[in-house]
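Aim 2, interim progress: modelling of the pyridoxal-5'-phosphate-bound target.
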Amino acid sequence: MKPNIRPARPLFSSGPCAKRPGWSPEVLKSALLGRSHRSAAGKARLAEVINLTRELLRLPEGWRVGIVPASDTGAVEMALWSLLGARGVDVMAWESFGGDWVNDVVKELKLKDVRTFNAPYGSLPDVTQASPDRDVVFTWNGTTSGVCVPNGDWISDRREGLTIADATSAAFAMDIPWPKIDVATFSWQKVLGGEAQHGILVLGPRAVARLESYTPAWPMPKLFRMTKGGKLVAGIFEGETINTPSMLCVEDALDALKWAKEIGGLSGTMARSKANLDAVAAWVAKSSWAGFLAATEATRSCTSICLKITDPWFQGRDAAAQGAIIKRATAMLEKEGVAYDLGAYRDAPPGFRIWGGATVEKADVAAVLPWLDWAYGAARDEMRASAH
Ligand SMILES: Cc1ncc(COP(=O)(O)O)c(C=O)c1O
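Predicted structure of the complex, ligand included:
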């Protein structure tokens, strides 16, 4: 039986994520279009984004925020290329994006003194193995597995190395202990529901000290350059972007940040995301066929909520058949117009992924879950029938 309640907004993609409730293109009407981003008005707009970000994330004194090119990937790679190589590096990975950073460190930067700690989809490596003497690169929330670090207790306050966290699907939804984080990156397109292509780079004082005392052995593209004559280019962290930003995206980010402030700031955005996870958890507790991919409750993401199929019949199929069932179910949901983009990531175990970031309404998450029951059941029945 098809459920009779439909999500008001069937948008569950993990990026670009749903715009904030109530968003319309109208919010962009006062964007500073056709003007230079280096004009006083342009710089003021960029500085407002930076200041609001700092305020809402409750960054400590001395932590800087820069708007950088190429979305979260750009921000992460800018950090890796600029900071690594000064000491040994520990890289932790437990899903696709973390794997990309391992690849960057090992195969592209070709650093010699590297230890990698990998875990399969659903698990977290033993993060306590990270050495305080070494730099540590990790993903706060693994978007493709729905596994996040539960906290930063494993990071030493007396560390010598830097902590570099890809926090793109964590920022604004999870509690990040900033004094333990020397570098964090994210983009507007995730929890804030902003537009893609601009990255945010958060630098703590120890990362700045590294930048000013260490020059990597490799050439640095202009897009990554944060120092000049051995000094930090402070303007980058005040709105003087390295290259031209989209002032339309900047306006949209401002709208998202103002909305976040209106709903209670970080507490508000975190609570909305947690409510979405709670809705899924209540459903999983009663489900006969689905479970969390994250093996441990404390590591369950409240943003990229990844579900595996526990149904023994499904478990007995091969990977191709499993993939086909999920594909069929997601196609049915799309055709009904009740849920878009909630198939698991292509490299992850076949299953579903519901984005639960702050811009998604709990009522929509609650409404889509019975549709998942319907679509999975229908796809399985079809597959069974065609096997006979
Ligand atoms: C953990 C993680 N890192 C990096 C990225 C890449 O982000 P972007 O496409 O914004 O560069 C994503 C995108 O989903 C992600 O989830």
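The chain has a mean pLDDT of 98. The two ends are 23 Å apart (CA to CA).
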